[in-house]
Write a structure and sequence with these properties.
Blueprint: H1 2-17, H2 20-33, H3 35-38, H4 72-83, E1 103-107, E2 113-117, H5 118-129, H6 137-145
Helix pairs in contact: 2-5, 4-5
The structure holds heme C.
Residues 33-34, 36-38, 48, 52, 54, 56-57, 59, 62, 75, 78-79, 88-89, 91, 93, 95, 123 line the site of heme C (HEC).
Length: 148
């Protein structure tokens, strides 16, 4: 039993570091399952967004909307909920591939390590990698309407 436990621990450390291959794996899941609505770049403008009563969220602003910190655990919990059938505003895509595969231990606060499916962890790492600052649009538009 020793070797498997050690390999799980190493996987968890790799998760914490957000290694590049994990982000690549997450990107592939994102492209397959999410880009249709949330857009190739995550800004909520995929072709599937048309016709939805609630627009898909801009997934690149999650950190900006959370005082600059990407709430990785909350995001994973939310996607996990969708995968288990919680309503995604009329959108009910099949997310089950995210819940398959190896489990890795993820720190979820208070020193607790929660076994989490690796594809879900990878997807969260990818989403974290595409976070950006909102554009400073108000300053630009003030200049544009000012005297010539
Ligand atoms: C069929 C369209 C559709 C697909 C496919 C889709 N989403 Fe969404 N998503 C939405 C809509 C619409 C919302 C906004 C309303 C809501 O919060 O449910 C949303 C909201 C979210 C939110 C909440 C953001 C916030 O600010 O709270 C997250 C996170 C999210 N989606 C992640 C994903 C991920 C990850 C995938 C792929 C595994 C995915 N979505 C696939 C339509 C979609």
């Amino acid at each position: 039993m020793r070797a498997p436990i050690r390999s799980v621990a190493i996987a968890a450390i790799a998760v914490a570091a957000g290694c590049a291959s994990e982000v690549e794996t997450g990107r592939a899941s994102y492209t397959d399952l999410c880009a249709g609505c949330h857009g190739a770049g995550g800004q909520g403008n995929g072709p599937g967004a048309r016709g939805l009563t609630v627009p898909p969220s801009d997934l690149t602003l999650i950190a900006a909307q959370n005082a600059g910190t990407f709430p990785r655990v909350e995001v994973m919990a939310k996607i996990d909920g969708y995968a288990k059938g919680e309503p995604h505003h009329g959108a009910m895509p099949v997310f089950w591939p995210l819940l398959e595969g190896r489990m890795v231990l993820v720190p979820t606060g208070d020193g607790i390590l929660t076994p989490t499916p690796e594809p879900l962890v990878a997807l969260a790492a990818y989403l974290e990698s595409i976070q950006r600052q909102p554009r400073a649009a108000p300053v630009l538009s003030l200049k544009q309407v000012g005297p010539q």
